[in-house]
Each structure stands twice: as structure tokens, then as C-alpha cells.
Amino acid sequence: MSGTTPSSSTTTKERHYAHLNARLAQLSHHAAALQNEFFVAGEQARYLRQLGASQGALFMGALHQVDSQAVEEAEARGGHGHAQGQGQGQGQQ
Fold first, then answer.
1. What confidence tens digit (pLDDT) does each residue in 5-23 have?
2. Average pLDDT over residues 57-67
3. Could you tell me which residues come within 8 angstroms of residue 80 by beta carbon, excluding any fewer than 6 positions away?
4. How many C-beta atoms surround the C-beta of residue 71 within 10 A?
5. Domain ranges across the chain
6. Cα dist. 22→9, 66, 80 in Å?
């Protein structure tokens, strides 16, 4: 005697199938949420790339401004900008 009746076996199967169905629904929901997260991450990467390009342009503009101010100050002191530094380097050889 096995101790299980055919009706209890089908009830157990139905319970397992219902549990499996619920788990598959949960998995489907999580997969959809993950797909949405990837989409948002892709959009944010595009914005981050634009932000990096803008920041690089700001740094280049600031460097140009600082360099031009340094040249103007050197010329105001009677030097010739960057040429003065080159002449000093050659005299030390």
C-alpha cells in the first residue's frame, strides 16, 4: 500500500503547478523590470557622455583663458611669452 490516493496525487500536482505558475509570473515581472532598468541605464549613459564632453570643453576653455592671461602678463613684464622660457632652457645645456 502506497498510502496516497489518486485524488490526493492530483491535488498535490495542481498545487505544484499553481506554485510554479506563480513563480514564473514573478520571474516574468522581474525580467520586465530588469529590461526597464537597462533602458534607463542606456539613457543615463548618453547623458553622461554629453556631460563629459561639456566638462571637457569647459576645461579646454579655462586652460585657453589661463594661458592667454599668462602670455599677457609675461608681455607686460617685458618678456616674449613662451619664447622667454625656451631661451633659458638652451643656455643651461
1. 777 888 999 999 999 999 9
2. 95
3. 74
4. 14
5. 16-80
6. 20, 65, 80
